[in-house]
Every structure is written in structure tokens, then in C-alpha cells.
Amino acid sequence: MSNEKGWGMRAFDWFEERLPIVSFIDHSVGSKYPAPNNLNYFWNFGSLAGFMLVVLMMTGIVLAMSYTPHVDHAFESVERIMRDVNSGWLIRYLHANGGSFFFIVVLIHIFRGMYYGSYKAPREVLWWLGIVIYLLMMATAFMGYVLPWGQMSFWGATVITNLFSAVPIVGDEIVTLLWGGFSVDNPTLNRFFALHYLLPFAIVGVVVLHIWALHIPGSNNPMGIEVTANDKIPFHPYYTSKDVFGLGVFLLFYFTVVFWFPNAMGHPDNYIPANPLQTPAHIVPEWYFLPFYAILRSIDDKLTGVILMFGSILILFVVPWLDTSRVRSANFRPIFKVLFWIFLLDCFVLGWCGSQLPEGLPLILTRVGTFWYFFHFLVLLPVVGWIETPRPLPSSISTPVIASPAE
Ligand code: HEM
């Protein structure tokens, strides 16, 4: 039998010699990319985030084909998408709920990084790029929510853009620039539409850098220790199949909401057309902004509130240095592990506070929660790193497995 290559393989080789795209993929997420053999399901969330980014861009482009960015037509154009455009309701619900699920996935991805110390050397730049993505995501989501031009769109935009007036000296100029005039109006809607369309492409660019920065040191792992050659397995087929399984499970949740509870995460007031003459009783942002909204309102002074709110995200950039422990994984850090769960609870409490009126118990909790948020990063992280005695680290991933007696 001849082992001559068929014409198909020869054509493939010809192309591959000129543009080695298949071997590039194989080295990036394929059989030539070695990954630690102990990654758990929390390592699925990066690929899930990538999946959601693609879903949002594809559904968004289709929505844009029938959407009209004009204050007189935006609300009705969305209703038309829901009622008259073929499968328009599905595309819109996939997109609107997709935003929420994108945040759920990315937040789990971030908290995973915090728990396993993935932000520590040598992955600081990877972490920074993640925060840049998170900031871009928030800007994109905020502008997207304005597009249906419902009551919450309009009043949310008014409240949040007005925050910039707190900036000394140039505050009012910034607000005028954001609005494109002297109130939230048609120019505002136009520029928000343009930017909402543009920013996801910027996110794609930063994601490419993010993955690039990941491939330099390779993935961290649940033990947080350096990985020896013996403890690595090829990404494909092991993690590609695990990612596909995780995607299936994730889709069950996503589709359950899209098909059965498509408005559960939205606000009913956004089904009322925007009315600049009627302020809703209670203006609330989308759920993923609630903790930051709470921090903003934790203090009476507007400028201090704005500084605290932006500071609560920007502080993430210096976390790799605020955390003074050299041990990465919380599994080996008894005190840090407890603090991690308290911090997570604190974020949920702040989220609840952000949905309430800032008075009485919610206001007290907001203030305690905001204090704890910064106390965690600025005081506890450095101090615990110094005083904590971590559990002994195994010398390799396989050591504890080989050492433990057979059961
Ligand atoms: C569009 C959003 C994002 C996408 C598509 C994305 C994608 C990925 C992928 C595919 C991985 C490798 C698989 C994994 O470890 O889960 C990864 C790792 C990582 N990402 Fe992201 N990411 C996003 C946002 C973020 C954000 C917002 C942060 C932090 C603020 C972040 C921080 C990290 C870190 C620290 C790692 C390394 C984890 C480790 O090896 O332990 N990412 N990302």
C-alpha cells in the first residue's frame, strides 16, 4: 500500500506552509498546549466568557439591523423586533439575558482568580488585562441598557452621566460632552449606540492580549504551585471536552432564563417609553452594577461617592501587591480562605443594598459593607499575608496523590 498523501492532505500542507493556522490553534488550545492536569470546573469560565462574547456580538449585530437609534423611534423599533421581526423576540432575549449571563460568568471567573491567587506573579499583566475587559464590559452594558429608551434607560443614563459633574472644574464640560447637548437626548442615544457597537470589538482585542498573556506562564491551578512536566496533559482532547461539557450545562441555565423567565433580570419600568417629565419612584441600575451603586450612595458627598465607586474597581489593579502572601491557593491559606468568603458575602450584601432606598437598615449595611470592602483590600490582604502560617505546599501536583495510602 502506498503511503503517498492524498490530494486533500497535500493541499492542506501547501496552505499550512504558507499560513500555519491549524498549528497555531493546536499550540494555543489544542494537543500541543500543555495544561496542568488538576484544573477543576472553575477553569471552564474563561472559555464560557469567550463564548458569551461571541453570542452577544452575533445577536447584537442582528438586532442592530432592525433597531433605530432615534428618541422618537427607539422604543417602538424594539417592540417591533419583539412582535414583527422573525425570531426577533428570541434574538433580543438572547442578547439582553446574554448580558447578564456574561457578567455571571465573568464574575465567577474573577472570584476564581481571587480564591486561587491567579493574579500573583507571574500573572499580574494577565490580571490587569482582565480588569480592563471588566471596565469595558461595564461601559458597554451601561450604554446598551439605554438603547431601548424606556424609563429606566433614560433615568439610569441621566443619573450615571450626571455623576461626572462631581469632577472638579471640568465636571460640567464632561457631562455636556457625554450628552452631546444639555440633557440626555437624541445625540446621547446616538453616541451610546455607536459606542455600544464599537466597544465589544475593543473587548475582543483585549481578550486576545489576555489569552496571549495567559500562554506565557500557562494556567495557574487549584493548588497554586508550579507545574512540573509530569503534571501536564494536552489541552485537547482533555480540556476541550471538559469545556464542551461545561458549555452544555451552562446553556441549560441560560436557555431556562431566555425561554421561561426572560424578563426576570430586567426592570418592568423599562417597558414604559422614556419620559423626561416623569421621574420613576425608584431608579435602579442592572443587577451587576448594584454593589457599585451602593458604594456610590454610601456617603452623602457626591464627589467622595464617585471616587469610592471608581476606586472600588481600580483597587483591583494593585491587588497582586496588596496580597503579600507568596502562597497562591486559598486551599493552603486558612485565614485568607475565611476572609475570601466574607468578602464574597460582603459583595452580595452591597448588591442587595444597591437595590434598596438609601435609608434605615440598608444605609447602615451599605456603610458597613463599603468599609469592609476597602478594609479587606487595604488592610486585611497585606496583614494576613504577613501573619498567616500557610499549610505545607506539596512539591508537585502528583505528590499528595502518590503519597496517600490506597483506599
Ligand atoms: C471577556 C471576558 C474574558 C474572557 C473571554 C476571558 C478568557 C479567559 C480564558 C479563556 C482563560 C483561560 C481559562 C481559564 O483560566 O478560565 C482566562 C484566564 C484568566 N483570566 Fe480571563 N477572561 C475574561 C475576563 C477576565 C477578567 C474580567 C479577569 C479579572 C479581572 C480575568 C482574569 C483571568 C486570570 C487571572 C486568568 C488566569 C487564571 C488561571 O490560570 O488560574 N479574566 N481568561
Uncertain runs are: none
Q: Which CATH class of the largest domain?
A: Mainly Alpha
Under CATH, the topology of the largest domain can be stated as Cytochrome Bc1 Complex, Chain C
Strand content: under 5%
Shape-level CATH architecture of the largest domain: Up-down Bundle
- State the total count of DSSP E strands: 2
Rg over CA atoms, rounded to whole Å, is 24 Å
Q: Kindly name the structural category.
A: mainly alpha
Overview of this protein structure:
By secondary structure, this protein is an all-alpha fold. The protein contains 16 helices and two strands. Strands 1-2 form a two-stranded antiparallel ribbon. The model has no long low-confidence stretch (mean pLDDT 97). Protoporphyrin IX containing FE binds at residues 43, 45-47, 49-50, 53, 106, 109-110, 113, 116, 118-119, 123, 126-127, 130-131, 133-134, 203, 207, 210-211, 214, 219-220.
SSE topology:
Blueprint: H1 7-18, H2 21-29, E1 34-36, H3 45-64, H4 74-83, H5 88-115, H6 124-146, H7 151-162, H8 171-179, H9 186-215, E2 232-234, H10 235-260, H11 290-296, H12 302-314, H13 319-322, H14 334-354, H15 360-387, H16 399-403
Antiparallel strand pairs: 1-2
Helix pairs in contact: 3-5, 3-9, 4-5, 5-6, 5-10, 6-7, 6-9, 11-12, 11-14, 14-15
The structure holds protoporphyrin IX containing FE.
